[in-house]
Amino acid sequence: MSQNIITQEELSLLIEQTYKVEKEFTELKSSYAHLQDTVERVVEFLPNAIWILHDDNKMFLQNSKARELYSLYENLEIKIEDYEISFEDKSYLVKSSTYKDKKMLSATDITEQKRKENLATMGQMAAHLAHEIRNPIGSISLLNSTLSKRVIPENIPIVEEIQKSVFKIERIIKATLMFSSGVKANKKSFSWQKLQESLVLSCGYYGYSKEIKFDFLVNDFQINGDFDLLEILFTNFLFNAIDAIELDEEDTGNIKISYIYDNDLHKFYIYDSGVAIENKDNLFQAFKSTKVKGNGLGLVLSRQIAQAHDGGVELLDDEKKCFGIYIA
Q1: All domains of the chain in start order, with CATH
Q2: Is the pTM of this model over 0.85?
Q3: How buried is 265 (Cβ within 10 angstroms: 0-12 exposed, 13-18 middle, 19+ buried)?
Q4: Most-buried pick from 2, 43, 129, 224 (CB within 10 A)?
């Protein structure tokens, strides 16, 4: 019987080949680990939630956003490719694709996009209604003005109440049309006292039943801004303050405006003694009011007007009912 004898040379060659295969395997394993790490990093970097599944729907890979939305994942329809789903007061766009034995699901938060779409639709509808209402309200205002000159003295308060109601409706129409068309400031220099005098008249015209003390500014200074827009901005806050005092249990109330000039900004602070703000999450959100009879546009427009003057508005202290208004 013959025996196969491996020579020293063959053994050395075999060992060399073994090391070579082992090196190639190590390099391949390292390359695969690097590729897997790269894929995981890419998946993690994506702004939406990503789930990658085996063909038996068991989890293969997911990013941190997907882990945060595990409850959402449990409600997904894996067999449906593209659809929208509402979950925990948010909207998500769900997409899926299959490659070989893997299935990828992605969920993108489109809540803000949907909100803007809804706002655009509501804005268009509101603008259309405002246009339709504007003409008859103008006629009522004109007729009421004529009536005030002919009515008997005993009925004058009724005519005044009608005019105050018309005034409020006209403000709503103006705010709605301005919201739909956008805020553009036509800036000119004017004195604060001129604006303040107009604010005092508007507050008297707005009407209120309680005794309210207005603590306005004594000093005067120049502002470079759009007079009409700034009048809307400040009256929005003042009228909100009046409404808050009207809802309060106290028979009297206080509204105060303080002022400083700092870092090239006119900084105004408005306080009132009325009821606390409800639904603070709705502040500065269009068509979401913080009060029962609001239309949800006043504070939104106020912020837009302030921004058009390179400034802003914010709630500084809820308990003291203090808002900051900043104008450049």
Answers
A1: 8-111 (3.30.450), 112-182 (1.10.287), 183-328 (3.30.565.10)
A2: no
A3: middle
A4: 43
